[in-house]
Design a protein that fits this description.
464 residues, Uridine Diphospho-n-acetylenolpyruvylglucosamine Reductase, domain 2, Uridine Diphospho-n-acetylenolpyruvylglucosamine Reductase, domain 3, Alpha-Beta Plaits, 3 domains, five-stranded antiparallel sheet, 13 helices, globular, FAD-bd_PCMH-like_sf, FAD-bd_PCMH
């Protein structure tokens, strides 16, 4: 291993990589110059933002790591078309605040449509790299929210990419995990901000899709279902909290009480020690918030506790651990079957489910490597993973079993969170993956842009 700078992702902490050097470009021109210098030196380049992805996409051993979090400029809003140009390194709270600041007193107030949930300090460029989605009930992945972007390619050339200009690069770089170049700024499609009212009920997985369809017919814009994680209960993965958000008259409303950092610390502790009680506490909070009103953009923000496992492990006197995430997709008509079989898989595994949710996604018809091949139900599992060989192997086996289950029902899985899928699983979920790798070779014949994620998949497909 090199003696370079040790990097890791901020959530799973399972991707330690030593990069040769870190550079922080302040502009697109500087990013271009850094790539040209790396090309002259024959050095591979990796790209990171906030480092939340868990599959090793941000780092490559012995690479020049370009940390893009200084690319935060926000341009003027095109109020006729609802567009804004923003630096790829900006995080969502700062983007929302900037949009609000320059539109005070204006109507409509243009703002974002969707962002990732679970954490806020995620960059816009990272969102494009993974082609993310949020809790929108009638939304495709974020590629549908992108008008154009600026990209620095393998030679340092600065390109503008859209559906009409460098269109193939547009399709490959969004959802391309940094393999095709550095996205430095994004022209984002916005939407008028509105007030939304939270509607909460306790329901079961067999009633979920009909309930969501009814809420959508009633104009709900956002929503999700947080399911029970108590493996000792018959309600495991079955009963949950359905919260949807409906537009209402844009009137003044008092701020709703949201879960504080202390509340989340309590919930996380209970999720590790008393999974029956954690649902009671969590559902009680949400039921009490029924009827609360929020901004359609700011309601997507929330508390995220970094490094919470360090204190938790010490408090519980347990081995070092984190939660590993996987997101599985199934046709909506098979959601009930998937959840019942997933419960049968996870109960005897001995691996605690610390958090889980169900959302909806609409089909992605644009990206070169689409994960939303049809209108899916999205199921997110956070599995407690102890940081030793046996603990990691247990989680890997559990996620492989869940992927097999999703595939058996015509579903798929998200590439962002780990590299534990087999080659066969990858090909079944992403039949276009070999073409994706060939496109990478065409656009980047010298493999200038590298990561542990890309190296893993390159080797997976080069093996006999």
């Amino acid at each position: 291993m090199s003696c370079g700078i040790l990097c890791n992702d901020v959530h799973s902490r399972l991707n330690p990589v030593r990069v040769a050097r870190i550079a922080r470009p302040q502009s697109t021109a500087e990013a271009s110059l850094l790539v040209q210098e790396a090309a002259t030196a024959g050095m591979p380049v990796s790209i990171c933002g906030a480092r939340h992805a868990m599959g090793g996409q941000q780092f490559g051993e012995d690479t020049l790591l370009l940390d893009c979090r200084s690319l935060t400029a926000v341009g003027e809003i095109d109020r006729d078309r609802g567009l804004v140009e923003a630096g790829a390194g900006i995080i969502w709270p700062d983007l929302i605040a900037a949009l609000h600041a320059v539109q005070q007193g204006l109507d409509p107030l243009w703002t974002i449509r969707q962002k990732q949930t679970g954490a806020d300090d995620l960059t816009l460029g990272g969102a494009l790299a993974a082609n993310i989605h949020g809790r929108g009930l009638r939304m495709a992945p974020i590629i549908s929210d992108v008008e154009a972007f600026t990209l620095v390619d393998t030679s340092g050339q600065i390109l503008r990419c859209s559906r009409v200009e460098n269109a193939e690069l547009f399709r490959h770089a969004i959802g391309g995990y940094g393999c095709f170049g550095i996205i430095t700024s994004v022209q984002l499609r916005l939407t008028p901000r509105c007030t939304v009212e939270r509607c909460v009920e306790i329901t079961t997985i067999d009633l979920l899709i009909p309930a969501l369809e009814e809420r959508i017919a009633d104009a709900a814009l956002y929503g999700d279902f947080q399911f029970s994680i108590d493996e000792c209960s018959p309600d495991f993965l079955r009963r949950g909290v359905l919260a949807t958000y409906h537009p209402v008259a844009n009137e003044d409303h008092p701020p709703a009480r949201e879960l504080s950092a202390a509340d989340w610390e309590e919930l996380i502790h209970l999720a590790h020690t008393d999974r029956a009680k954690v649902f009671e506490v969590y559902s009680g909070h949400y039921l009490a918030s029924h009827g609360s009103r929020y901004g359609s953009d700011t309601h997507q923000l929330g508390v995220y506790l970094e490094d919470y496992h360090c204190g938790l492990d010490a408090k519980l006197d347990s081995p070092p651990a984190t939660e590993m995430i996987s997101e599985l997709y199934v046709p909506r008509e098979y959601l009930v079957t998937f959840m019942a079989r997933a419960a049968d898989l996870l109960r005897p595994s001995g691996i605690p489910v610390i958090y889980g949710t169900v959302r909806l996604i609409e089909r992605d018809t644009e990206s070169a490597l689409p994960w939303a091949r049809q209108d899916f139900a999205c199921v997110i599992f956070n599995l407690h993973t102890e940081h030793h060989e046996q603990g990691i192997a247990r989680s890997a086996a559990a996620f492989q079993s869940l992927i097999d289950l999703a595939l058996s029902l015509g579903g798929s899985y998200f590439l962002t969170y780990h590299r534990w899928a087999t080659r066969g699983q990858l090909l079944q979920a992403y039949p276009g993956f070999p073409d994706f790798l060939r496109a990478k070779d065409r656009y980047d014949p010298e493999s200038r842009f590298q990561s542990q994620w890309w190296r893993h998949h390159r080797d997976l497909f080069s093996a006999p």
